[in-house]
């Protein structure tokens, strides 16, 4: 039988090393996708501050990949369901209608991830326990911290 999980209260100020690694977890997710926050999480797993911020970046990248996978699946299904064009030589009309929508959606999601990464990297660099919208509370529970 395992002991109950007790959430640790946030009381101490993070060190400059912890602030740096937490900020890096957010910034490096832009170029390193989920791999960079995962490496930081595995290297600095003893720090609750770094663990919280690295998990946030990791969960954001997982959500990003799931959304993109769902969008690509919807795109492929839309093109396949639209059926062949009137002649066998031309591609389906849905390909030309759905592709710009897919591309704009993917770019919009990437801009949101980019803005979140920059804003929360700055906050982590300041030593704040700032939580992403929607996934921040889940991350706090997984990391075992109680956010203010």
Folded structure, characterized:
The chain has one domain (8-143). 69% of the residues lie in helices and 3% in strands. The protein contains five helices and two strands. Strands 1-2 form a two-stranded parallel ribbon. Helix 1 packs antiparallel against helix 2 (35-43), helix 1 (16-32) packs antiparallel against helix 4 and helix 2 runs antiparallel to helix 3.
In short:
With 148 residues, the protein is mainly alpha-helical. The protein has helices at residues 16-32, 35-43, 48-81, 93-126, 136-143; strands at residues 8-9, 145-146.
Q: Notable features of this structure?
A:
single chain, 148 residues, elongated, mainly alpha, disordered N terminus
Question: How are the secondary structure elements laid out?
Answer:
Elements: E1 8-9, H1 16-32, H2 35-43, H3 48-81, H4 93-126, H5 136-143, E2 145-146
Parallel strand pairs: 1-2
Helix pairs in contact: 1-2, 1-3, 1-4, 2-3, 3-4, 3-5
């Amino acid at each position: 039988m395992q002991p109950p999980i007790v959430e640790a209260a946030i009381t101490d100020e993070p060190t400059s090393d912890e602030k740096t690694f937490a900020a890096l977890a957010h910034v490096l997710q832009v170029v390193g996708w989920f791999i960079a926050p995962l490496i930081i999480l595995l290297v600095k797993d003893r720090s609750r501050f770094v663990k919280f911020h690295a998990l946030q970046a990791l969960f954001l990248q997982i959500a990003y990949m799931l959304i993109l996978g769902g969008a690509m699946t919807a795109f492929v299904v839309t093109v396949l369901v639209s059926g062949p064009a009137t002649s066998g030589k031309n591609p389906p009309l849905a390909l030309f209608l759905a592709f710009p929508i897919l591309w704009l959606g993917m770019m919009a999601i990437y801009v949101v991830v980019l803005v979140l990464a920059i804003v929360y990297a700055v906050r982590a660099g300041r030593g704040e326990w700032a939580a992403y919208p929607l996934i921040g509370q889940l991350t706090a529970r997984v990391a075992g911290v109680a956010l203010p």
